[in-house]
Amino acid sequence: MPTDLTFWVQTFFNCLGLGSLLLLIAIGLNIIYGINRIVNLAHGSLYALGAYFGYTLVAKGLNFFLALVLAPILVFGIGLILERSIIARIRTRPMLYTLILTYGVSVLLDGLMKYFWGVQPRFISTPSFLSQTIHLGSIPYPFYRFFILIVTTAVMAGLMFLLGKTKMGITMRAASHIPEMVSVLGINMNLVQVLVFGMGCFLAGIGGVIAGPLLTVYPMMGSEMLISCFIVLVIGGLGSLKGAVIAALLVGSVQTLGYIFITDYAMVVVYVMMAIILSFMPRGILGEGKFE
Amino acid sequence: MKKVIFVTFAFFVCSLLLVPGNGWTQDKKPVKIGVPVTLSGMGAQVGVDNRNGIVLAAKHKKTVLGRPIELIIEDEEGKPEVGVRKAEKLVFKDGCIAILGVVFSNVGLAVAGEADKLKVPFLTTNVMTPKFYGINKYVFRCGQLADDQTAMGHVMGIAADPDLSKRTYYVLADDYAWGHSCAESFIDLAQKKGIKISNPKYDNAALTVADWSPFISKVSAAGVDGMYSCLRSPVIPRFTKQAYEFGLMKKIKVVAGGSPSEADLEAGGEAEVGMVTVCCYSWDIDTPASKQFAKAYWEEFKAVPPSQGAQAYVGAMMLFNAIEKAGSTDADKIANALKGATYNGPYGQVRISPKDNSMRTPAVLTETRLAPPNPYGAKIIKKVLVNLTPEQLGPPE
Amino acid sequence: MSDPISIEKITAVADIGKFSWKMFATIGTILILLFLVPWILSNRFYLRLATEILIYGLLAMSLDVLLGYTGLLSFMHAVYMGIAAYTVGLYLKYVDPAASIWLLMFLGVGATVLIAFPIGWLQVRTGGFAFALLTIAFGMMLYTIVWKARNLTGGDDGLIGIPSPKVNLSSLVLADCKDPTAVYFITLIVVILCFYLTRRIMRSPFGAVLESIRENEERASFVGIHVHRYKLWGWMLACALAGVSGVLLTIMKCSVSPTVMDPGAGGSVLMMALLGGLGTLWGPFLGAGVFIFAQDYLSTMTEHWMIFLGLFLIVLVLFIPKGIAGFQEALSPKKSE
After folding, report:
1. Ranges of chain B whose pLDDT falls below 50
2. How far is residue B373's CA from residue B67's CA, in Å, rounded to a whole number?
3. How close, in Å, is residue C160 to chain B by CA atoms?
4. What is the pTM of this model?
5. Which chains does C contact via 3+ CB–CB distances below 8 A?
6. Which of A37, A96, A268 sits opposite C141 (nearest CB)?
7. Å between A42 CA and nearest CA of chain B
8. Which CATH number characterizes residue B201's domain?
9. C221 vs C226: CA distance, rounded Å
10. B19 lies in some domain
11. Residue B162 is part of which domain span?
């Protein structure tokens, strides 16, 4: 077992890095479930779509940071279209329908991505200062992973502000608890639902553009990420922001450490953890069905 | 309600009746060859390369037994039961007289298991598992190097190079049958030749790993200066790019047991430079046959001519020529014609050994470099370092 | 207060509804057609497809028992088919290639039930979405174990070349499973038996209790029903039936691979059950038929079959939500948590 400082410092940041990436990708799913009570199985595909849009924008010459803003907006647009045309219709029906429907949407999106972009893997090229190796003392570490941390922190801070302090955010949270009261107060519930869904898609898009330069961009990337997102959602507690943060860091750390010490069975440990938490704390670590 | 049931069921039955019921329609004209390859999922790029190679071969050969060649291409999705189902469809429904292609070993094994029921020759252009040697009288392998040949090629290449032979290698393998097979054959041979291995029990990486940082840190901490990768091709650019950003690629030399495909190298760009790998074909090979193939491939598909495309091309040609030689579409005659068959192609003479129905082929040890100006728009080239003969690669007959 | 409805009543004579000529004619025609299939479809490929549809129809029906009747959602139900498939495959390949089909059925279903019991016991303490996610967790654990135990199961290479058993009645050889027609008939008979048995069970007081739990767990418990116990029984029945389908699968294919129990398979069987219509038991067979047929047909037609599959599913949910069979009282809002 390696015992030198370099290894442990790198591992610490690896855990943090994976955790924050998972959080960034999963938070959109969490919000859509927390407020709209919709389990969006297409979330993985929307994340992949964000990555593909980011790739094309950058490949066409757009600055990476502009693409980071524009691609999620495009995904937001697609999300709006999806919501209005398809998802709104089954809002009143039981969850099972939502599951098949969003699954169908994800298959459709994956197929479309394969059609338009082909099966080759791609990378999003980033400005060179982002992909450099920086040194903490004598320990080399990719700067990009710190960048991920920065972006995730910014996004989470933005979300907490939006949901905690702005009128729109408070309305959204209230709408998830007591929809009848909120609509009686004259607020358009439909609009709230649509905006929340769009926001979730926007976040998925950001996740995609951020993950793009690190992992490969290819049609299956969505389905691979989806199960991790669900684990974070479940462990953190459905609908809890703080819970999601803890869960993502937990899953990220367990996965990273697992790959180091038990390599092949790392994911099994994650599943066992999920099973234990679900069996004894079915609402997750912090979730109480409320949105915090 | 009952009406609904009746109508639905009637519809279902009628649609079944509409399909040809009395065996397959015997088209006298084209010779049909079934091509199941992986066109979706992780192996899709390899499947596309294989398919393209086969399609190109059919285009060049044009006719066999005086009849046009008709390829029926199916997506076996990398799943054994889909592969078997497609193989059965191709043989029993479409009337194909041979099966050509198949990308993954598990699909290949499943289809080979059905060979006695299918009763047609099955020639795979990509399956690498050693379990294929002599598995069935109808099953042949010609295309991608088998695991043991790959290991031999790499070990010989490393031993022959003054720089590579001094390094200590860390072995990292994808956690599935091919990864294990690749790693084990390499470690076994390497230790016999005195190549230093840092972890003889080799490390496994689950197929779902997207973030390689824990492994990168481990390799770093192991203090090695070389790495033998048994990672599948689509994963390699991801690993090397992440490792590059950790500054690892400057310290270690990666030998890729699983040869990265040209498309994947292009995706990875500069981070892919400096990898050593053995494959049958690189467009760097400087022979007229090689240049001709590369040009034809480029013209047809507008993609960098890939190793796997050339390998599949050779396999397909072998099959077409064997049908020609057998003079009929009879399975046993074709199988006999395939034993000992030879073909002179883009990378030299390839022969199918009658002993185990598997090919003996030349190969090249290459290193990825930044490509000089070339007609394919490629950024990376697999520069040929050493030529390996079929005798060197084995297995012995 | 003692439990007013006891489990022993499973074997009570079930009421099959009013006899009517129309019903008799419908069922009769269907049965006759099913038995004539090998001659209608003399092409070997289609015969195999029909056998596959029957097997997956049985699996989808078992999921209907779990979801449509007991109200428990499972995303990886195919895992229980896989356990039986592997048990039978391993036994035939390594222990006794000449094993009788009765023994194999017993072993396969037995192994499934043995593994399903502790998992079910843990899972039924929760319900709704939590239950569904636990099925994923345990399902993935089992799948990973099968995948990793390379030396035993062959890992992702799977087991190939499994010998075909013979069907024996004392010393009389009824059929040899090398013959696809024989396999089809064995499958058909087993499936019809299972269907009939399950239908009787579901129509008995036991089935009524399951449905009451599905409708409203709280109310059922107020009436004195041991909810967890019945949920567990429902789960066990569903897994046992899945086990039967697993045994049939190995016999038909003569090979097993981990893909029969991977998340994709779990999702597919759920699609089949939903497509066909929950709460009917026979709906899932139609669902399996349409799904397998469509998937095979689509992937032959175009490389981009995913686009069509996605559209198909979307259209299905939006316009034919109750599945082909049309009953949908199974889906109560209770499930969201």
Report:
1. 17-27
2. 41
3. 6
4. 0.84
5. A, B
6. A268
7. 17
8. 3.40.50.2300
9. 6
10. no
11. 148-279+364-393
